[in-house]
Amino acid sequence: MPVDEFGIIRRHFVRPKPVRADVVTGIGDDAALLQVPHRHELAVCIDTLVAGRHFPEDTRPAAIGHKALAVNLSDLAAMGADPAWATLALTLPEYDQAWMDDFMRGFFRLADHCSVELVGGDTTRGPLTVSVQAHGFVPQGQAVLRRGAQPGDLVYVTGTLGAAGLALHLKDAASDPLRRRLDFPEPRIAAGKALRGQASAAIDISDGLLADLGHLLETDGLGATLRVDELPRSREFLGRLKHAGVDADALFYELPLAAGDDYELCFTVAEDRAAPLEATISLLDCGCRCIGVIEAEPGIRCIRRDGSAYTPDGTGYLHFGD
Ligand code: ADP
Ligand code: MG
């Protein structure tokens, strides 16, 4: 960076006061020193956002800052982990103070909301790329994994599906209300913690329900039947869909099934544990809904309300596909 690197660090990354007592040394030394609580495991994940690929070019800086952290907190949530710390590797085409102020405002708003402390990072010049690494804790042995589902378990999703995909499909401007679902995903941290000791398996939906549920099933060689009319769709999604023209009928199914960027949790739970878990999650702002059942036969089968089969077009976002 041409501008004084330490000035940038002081202005944008260092906070006036520490957020967490378990940060022994945060930003400013060669490495952060962090204290993992006794009898807990450390959950660590990293995700990179590239302009034009992971967010539209017109995305506001605050949304990029929010989303870069949110997608990682969503991964921690899918493990049942409590988020604690983050590091931030930023590659910027140039130093733009107003852009950085807005970006970090989005980042810290979510970080503060989730009691996450930024403990370090790296800042370099190049095409806009944002990598965040997040760290969280789970009581020993209580993490919820992708593997572990059993035939007969019920399949659930939190929140609603398809709105982020519809905003992308309609090429909504950054000011459109539906863009909030694409730009400011809400990591389902409380729901993830409720899954500990209850859910048999979980994954977060970043690349689309079919793709991500597919990953969960593939670890145990299982399959599932989904009731596609019961996929949770928000009022906003249904309202905007009416104006999507000739594609509306197909999009009603395709977006909740195959569009990415929803960052809801998909989890499986044994039938006798489902009702209490559903009751617990219904007290949270996202809620959850049963959308199908795990079966021994591999593959995902989609059925409509009248029992007829539905054959999806897409199977989620493939980063190295065409
Ligand atoms: P070093 O050269 O030892 O890697 P740097 O000069 O890159 O150190 O960084 C100095 C301090 O500022 C370090 O503590 C580093 O973690 C922090 N830092 C640098 N960039 C960022 C960033 N994008 N976000 C948070 N902290 C950062
Ligand atoms: Mg460095």
Walk me through the structure:
- With 322 residues, the protein is an alpha+beta fold.
- The chain is built from 10 helices and 13 strands.
- The strands form 3 sheets. Strands 8-10-7-11-9-12-13 form a 7-stranded mixed beta sheet, with helices on both faces. A 4-stranded mixed beta sheet has the order 3-6-4-5, with helices on one face. It has a two-stranded antiparallel sheet with strand order 1-2.
- Helix 2 (61-79) packs parallel to helix 3 (97-113).
- The two termini are 35 Å apart.
- The mean pLDDT is 94.
- Adenosine-5'-diphosphate is lined by residues 5, 9, 13, 27-30, 88, 90, 118, 120-123.
From the alpha carbons, calculate the radius of gyration and give it in angstroms: 20 Å
**Which strand order does the major sheet show?**
8-10-7-11-9-12-13
- Low-confidence parts: none
| Succession of helices and strands | HEEEHEHEEEHHHEHEHHEHEEE
Hetero ligands: adenosine-5'-diphosphate, magnesium ion
Tally the helices. 10
Query: Tell me about the biggest sheet?
Result: 7 strands, mixed
In total, the number of strands is 13
Strand fraction band? 25-35%
Helix content: 25-40%
Average pLDDT number: 94
Helix-strand makeup class: alpha+beta
How far apart are the termini?
35 Å
Identify the overall geometry.
globular
Summarize this, please?
The chain has 322 residues and is of the alpha+beta class. The protein is built from 10 helices and 13 strands.
